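Write out this protein's structure.
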Amino acid sequence: MPTEADTITVLTRQANAWAQAIVRKDRAAIEANMADDFRQIDGQGQVETKQSFVNDLVSADLVIAPYTVEDFDIRLYGDVALLCGRTRMTGSYQGKPFKNGRWQIVSVQISKMPD
């Protein structure tokens, strides 16, 4: 059975590899870290599937470089892990730089887990 430190090391490597895969637009490496039933609520409140999320990331319209995660923290709750951090990206979408040269958070989803 892996120790908590071992699990944190594995998850940190996995998160770093995922961030690098996003910059490289490596579809297979991005998808390797995602569950098939992945869901995201986007900034307009639309539900994205794994396929739509990855399609957006690998689109030629989106250019991300660099991509860094700051204040990274991992919390373990039995067989569940919560990875938190502040992501800093620069780049462009459809040739236009991000607003004020940076991404801005426009939505946060908070949900109570079922008992």
